[in-house]
Specification:
Elements (H helix, E strand, L loop, with lengths): L12 E4 L5 H10 L3 E5 L10 H10 L5 E6 L4 H10 L4 E4 L5 H5 L5 E6 L6 H7 L5 E5 L26 E3 L8 H6 L5 E4 L4 E3 L2 E2 L1 H13 L4
Parallel strand pairs: 1-2, 1-8, 2-3, 3-4, 4-5, 5-6, 6-7, 7-8
Antiparallel strand pairs: 9-10
Length: about 220
Amino acid sequence: MLASSNPDLKKIRIKICGLTRVEDAVAAVNAGADAIGLVFYAKSPRAISIEIARQIALVAGPFVTVTGLFVGADPKEVTDVLKQVPLHLLQFHGDESPAYCESFQRSYLKAIRMKPDVNLDDAIAEYASASGILLDAYRPGVPGGTGETFDWGRVPRQSTTPIVLAGGLTPENVIQAIESTRIYGVDVSGGVESAPGLKDPNKIRDFISNAQLARQH
């Protein structure tokens, strides 16, 4: 049965993050990714230059959301990237304030690391202007890309803000992740790699295929 034949089933949105090569972006787009992510954080093994980022963004096509990921970046750095790379969405993984996130007049995702004591209701309310909230695993001193999962039971079952799930997702666990939550989308990086920053086209295809098979009621 086609998912579209049942109005109670939700379409899951899928983002492939941490792309460093044009061919990986092409593989993601051809496999059906809704969005791709480019990392502008020098300490990340997936950080890329503006030149490569622009090449990747241009091959994505008009209907794939090109996302730029930043961690506590100087506003000028973000502005410089925006002048040269056609980004549709900004993704902030640091301690950026709502005012900072809003200052670029661009849709944004705010990442919330799932610390044991985090109050998600308060965090979501604080970033009411965000297009979505991304929930990621927490490891002290690491802003993301840990390859670790967190307790999916902590994901809000109902939220007026779209929730994107990240952290340790793989082709093998993405169906369970989707079916055990009521999320808007999933975001994967290390789970579809052959090495940090190098995507595996077969893993990308399997991840997207499995995510599309998952059922959300």
